[in-house]
Every structure is written in structure tokens, then in C-alpha cells.
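Researcher: Here's a chain I'd like modeled. Treat it as a single chain, no partners, no ligands.
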Amino acid sequence: MGVTGAGSALPQLGAREIADLVGPAAAAEALADVLRAGLDPEACPQRTAVPVPGGELLLMPAAAGAFAGVKIAGVAPGNAERGLPRITGSYLLLDGPTLQPLALLDGAALTALRTPAVSALAVRCLTPDDRPLRLVLFGSGPQAYGHLEAVLAVRELAEVVVVGRSAAKAEGLVGYARKLGLAAARTGTPADVAGADLVVCCTTARTPLFDGRLVSPGATVVAVGSHEPDARETDTALVRRSAVYVESRAAALREAGDLLVPEAEGAIGPGHIAGTLADLVTGRVTGRAPSPPGRSCPQLFKSVGMAWEDLAVAVAVYLAAGANSET
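Model: Modeled as a single isolated chain. C-alpha cells:
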């Protein structure tokens, strides 16, 4: 693919093409590559959120290297009752130097790939790779499916326990896990975090999902479900006793209720953050523990989602589409 000229049709990449072109492991590596190349998430533009009658519109621009782009995403909580996706939107990828449009990507599909890829990269950096892990997964929607696939792309799993509000949906995800070869898959309760090596939270919850005191010192928790200052999936007890990692300190201290609520309570201060994803990827901070775990506290990765991540994965999809068209 080249830069789209005047009058030419803009290439469009839909959900099926995005899923076929780039998997979660490749998307995670694309994210790691841009961080290794020196991208500074702290300098990225802020997400713009506009309340609308149907929910919220998000505008997320970014530029890096030879590309730029912007995601326009809609978050429509009422869509579930209509049988429609909660997340909607489009991604416009641009040539960096000229800002000419290159391609239009399905924004919901891009988000469904990008968010689990960010988590997979954190899991790669924070969890041991010399033994199968016991996973407790909170959620049973599209992000839960995507996170299961993403974790499997970077780690072997000994067991997966699904905790969801809907018993039927949780059983559906358990069935999917078994189709992926995870015979030790079952539904469970929040108390199952006590036996987990890895806890992944990808829900729409606004209050903590489990008792953070139950999480073992050797465990890693990944929380991705919220980006609002008053919403959180993890409790103050977990945050206070954990080594906390984020995509960007500025973004986390602006949007992450998981950290802002404990800070407002006086339980932690801004300096509680141990490092960023860039620190982990570049080796400035080492998070992974040996096996058996030797840490004295859990590790928590809190993601709010950032525009540079959408750009990195959109570029990977675009380049893969171009390479695919040439073969």
C-alpha cells in the first residue's frame, strides 16, 4: 500500500481483515518495538472525552515515526440491550510527513486487538516464563475473549478460572477456553484469586471485583476495564501492597480510578508507581520474578488505554496488509 492520492479510494480494513492480519503476539511486539525505538508515552496527547446522549465519544490522536493517526471511538453502555457492541468507532491512519490518509480501520476491532496486546506485553514483562500459570479472568465479554487469547500467545496456562456476572456467558468463555486446549477451565468466584499466578480484569465494573488481601505475593494483576477517575476494578488493599506499573504516569494519575481512589483516601501517594511499561520493555526496571516467585508483594499493571498504542497496532495491521497484497 502507498499513500492514497487525491481522488483514489481509501483502503478500508474491517474486523475480519484486522484479526487475520495481526495476532495478539505480533501486536504486543509492535508495541514493544515503538517503545524500544524511543517513543515516550508521557508526551502523548491526552484523550479527549465528550459526553453525548448515547454515552461518550473519545478522540485519540497520535504521531510517531512515519505515521500519524486518530481514533474516534464511541462508548455506548445501552448498546448491550440492543444487541450491539458497546465500543464503536473508526481509525484513520495517516502518512506522517504529509498527513495524507492511508487507510481507514474498524475502530472497535482495533481496540479489541490493541487492549489485550498491551496486557500481553505487560504479562510478558511481569510473569515468570518457566512454568504454566494459573489464570483468574474477570469478565465474559469480547475483551475477556481477547485477553484469554493474548495471554495464551505469550504464556502457557495450567488453569483458567472465569468469573463473570452472567453464569451463562462465563460458561461460554469456559467452553471457548476448552476449545483452545485448556482442559483445566472452569467458572469460579472472586475468592479464586487466592490461588492465582495471574489475575486479569477486563470488565465494566465501577467498584472492586475482589478482596486484594487474598492475592498472593507472587501474583501479577492486570486491570484494563476502566479509564475514569471514579471507577476501579481493584481495591485499595491490593494497590497499597503492590508494585504498580502503568503505561504513563501522567495518564494514570489523570484517569486511573484504581490509583486515584486510594490516593484520595490517603493510602498511597503519586510516588507509589514503581515504573512504566516503557521501563519494563527497555529494561530500566525489572519486574519479572524467578520461579518459584521471590517477590514480597504482588505486581499490578493498570492500563487506561492510550493513543500511541492504537497507532502502533494500526501501523502493524497496515504494513501486514501491504505485505499480504504483494504476495
